[in-house]
Amino acid sequence: MIFSIKQAKNAAPLFAGWQETMIWSCLQGVMGNLYGDSSQNPVSAMAWLGDFCFLAGKPDRELALFWPKKVQNFVIMVPQDAAWEKLLESCYPQNARKVTRYATKKEPDVFDREKLRAMAGAVPGGYVLQEMGEALFWQCQKTAWCKDLVSQYEDFARYQKYGLGVVLLKDGEPVSGASSYTSYEGGIEVEIDTRKDCRRQGFAKICGAKLILDCLERGWYPGWDAQNPWSLALAQKLGYHFDHAYTAYEVVRG
């Protein structure tokens, strides 16, 4: 049987040392949910937030196969170690794609603000860089390509409290944006999206630079976990440093 873990302190030791902001969100009770083989004394646990699931402790097949009721049919599962990797591959032999992701170092004082201001100020003529207000929030919620900029916040009030974002507009329509995919106490996890027909024009760098500056003004840390080498390259242009590569599984529920 799988239990919901309401007291985060019961699961916290299993995730000790894991420098992942989405885990912090779950442990702090800001966003996401914790599950395990016991609610009080788990030896196996998962932190589930948005499209991500982090598996820690002793590998447990029942937990690896568990999907919360409200979750859609896709998730990125991140194993804590090789034993969890082996278990996930046995649980999802046909519908899990093994991928490599790239973590960046958590370095609050690393950013060059002047360089970021120059990047954020390079908005081309005919475009407007605008903060994520309520109208843009709901517009992004209804637009497939940029939904993830705000998808983890049920309403604008919660986004306004915990989130932060900017959107690049052309004729009043979003073409690129940078926002908080998730939030934790003291920061966010960065999400950047650009409309397919507007990519490779430097828009992501403009939006990313402005979001980082806005976070720094609030005293927040903008966490960046790169999906691929291109995302890592953008992060490095903005001032992040590579930490390590790690294994994840993109799983489609059969």
Description:
The protein contains nine helices and 13 strands. It is 30% helix and 31% strand. The longest helix has 16 residues, at 203-218. Helix 5 (113-120) packs across helix 8 (203-218). With 254 residues, it is of the alpha+beta class. An eight-stranded mixed sheet has the order 1-2-3-4-5-13-6-12, with helices on both faces. Strands 7-8-9-10-11 form a five-stranded mixed sheet. It has helices spanning 8-11, 21-28, 61-64, 82-91, 113-120, 134-141, 156-162, 203-218, 229-238, and strands spanning 3-4, 33-36, 44-49, 52-57, 74-79, 96-104, 127-131, 165-170, 173-184, 187-194, 221-223, 225-226, 242-252. It is globular and about 55 Å long. The two termini are 21 Å apart. Strand 3 (44-49) and strand 4 (52-57) form a beta hairpin.
